Amino acid sequence: MPVTKFNHPDPYKYQTGFDSHHESEAVEGALPIGQNSPQKAPYGLYTEKLSGTAFTAPRHENKQTWVYRILPAAAHENFVAEDANSYHTRMTTETHKLHHIPNQLRWNPFDLDEKVDWVHGLHLIAGSGDPTLKQGLGMLMYAAGKDMGKEAFYSADGDFLIVPQHGVLDIQTELGRIILRPNEICVIPRGVRYRVTLPDGPVRGYICELYQGHYQLPELGPIGSNCLANPRDFQAPVAAFDDEEESEYKLYSKFNNTLFAARQNHTPFDVVAWHGNYYPFKYDLGRFNTIGSISFDHPDPSIFTVLTGPSDHVGTAIADFVIFPPRWLVAEGTFRPPWYHRNTMSEFMGLISGDYDAKVGGGFKPAGASLHNVMSAHGPDSGAFEGASNAELKPQKVGDGSMAFMFESALMVGVSEWGLKTCEKVQPEYNEHSWKPLKRHFVNPNKKA
Fold first, then answer.
1. Which residues form the domain of 240?
2. DSSP 3-state percent helix, strand, coil across the chain (nearest 5)
3. Which cofactor(s) does the record list (predicted)?
């Protein structure tokens, strides 16, 4: 299994298991025994419930966590909308200006930004739906170069699936701390408060925010009980808290894609103990157990799904998170890269490192992206097609040193003003460079010479 390189050891402890009921206490005896909400919680703590689903959701879907904290989360001043016109307070989530277009799009690598922190380095690229109705998703880039100060942030809109491309995130959440590096992912559920600092300097990466439901492991069907992402490889934080008598904090809320802020006179990170199944977690992509064809033909990319955000229609996702890690190709008599296709799903791709085997022309680079919207035709560029059509079909390992991924959605997504124009990263000749050079190879046997 590949080992993630990191300049510092991970200083934090974790619990393992996906969607498991975890419990953790930073002070022995802080978790009540036998009751969730005793008349008086241990050590004079306050009891608070964090609900990620409706109280009456089916047991197998119900997500909730009980926390025992020094002061309740409700103890803050009123939220006030931030000034959207100020550079330092602007969070570009212009969902009212989405452009729905059928063109294939590709972006050059997005810039680092050392002037802003995590909250103010979020940029919506594309999205669909409405967080007020808890429907749809948003696809974002983040770029930051400053630590958050005595601040915390949460999204009321949806779950953040964070995919780092550059740099290290030290994420202090209410329920404990997480170190996140490239080739790892983290999910922070709706409503969980956290603070991001940068131990190794500027950071950049991708986010898929799920407005609808929560991320879960895909069903394995005929694959059986193992492979893909195994539950035991997911890590949740253990309880860790700050004990500050009086401390001024600023609390940011992303609420209907608008940024609000409130003041409070105590730390948000005062949870001494907790138990439940609603918590942030991380996963090392190097632990993904890839499968593929060992006879012929090219399987659907769904075999590379790490996490899914299902819709109400079985087998159709609001968001699938799919990766293309290093893997062996052994299929015989087969065009091995992805075939040309038109998909009822929208496909947003990003590249963490290396080169993607279906794009050899150099236009798809780490920290860049592409979008092939609903029924927009796409596939290998001309160079990849010619190479794969004439390659010797011996066992071949592809993707060494590379990690590409895809946010796939059943929804038609619109591109933000920032993603289409402001960032100035769209490649105007993507289509022309990728597919216009394709040559005609057809020989009509019925055509007379």
1. 14-285
2. 10, 35, 55
3. Fe cation
